[in-house]
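Action item from last week, closing it out:
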Amino acid sequence: MKIKFIILVIALAIFSCKTEKTTDANTNQKAIARVFEKNLYAEDIKEILPRNTSPKDSAIFVKGFIEQWITNELLLHQAESNLPEDDKNIQKEIDEYRKNLLVYRYETELVHQKLDTAVSMQEIETYYNAHTQNFMLKENIVKVCYVKINKKSPNADKVKKWYLSKEVKDQDNLKKYCIQYADNFFLDDNTWLLLDDVMKEIPLRDYNPELLLKTSRQIELGDSTFNYYLNIKDFKIKNNPSPLSFEKENIRQIIINKRKLSLIEQMKQSVYSQAKENNNFEIYP
């Protein structure tokens, strides 16, 4: 703390040529800034001065803090001077905010300590089957294998064979080749992707999405620089039920949030019941 205070004193000394100081008669503190009748003192800053800062950096920090303090105080003075008295009586709002903040922090700590966040696949499936109507696709999704490769890459012609093959050896060769040469690729055909995201990588903007999915499974395109290979393994059209695998994480969060709300409600009921039992409150007729 002593070192920190010394740094602050050095910083204020560097800044002192630009700041007129006055002395508080009651505390004998040197003011480093003033807005109307309110002063800012070194003691107000030393607790927030960053650790291990050089005198130069400390001076910059102090200057910025002082400028921000002056701006805030000027705005406060302006508000107090211009708002009607009724608008300035904010104690009730402050008390309400404090109450809500304390309750929120208590609920947050309760959730942190007691909430069970483990969700089984069985729970996810059960919820999905009971609420399938709530999981309708808003966009087209696909399972794909795609590769974007420069035409000048060595042995680029082999990609055409590998990306359509179901042979493990060919798939391994494709993965190794893509890691080394592909400009972009995606080979995990067990994962659902948004078709719009795929179309950002493959130049399919002139295609009707639904027609594309229903009529084409393998697409090969080229431009002056790249060849594009797209193999659509599966697809789901928007406004149809979304597959469980696509909604799994979403459902997990829904279940956890329901548990959270239930835990908080149980706490409220417990607090109320215990207070009633202990005669900690009364409702007068």
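Closing note: Strands lie at 22-23, 30-35, 38-41, 141-150, 184-186, 193-194, 218-222, 226-236.
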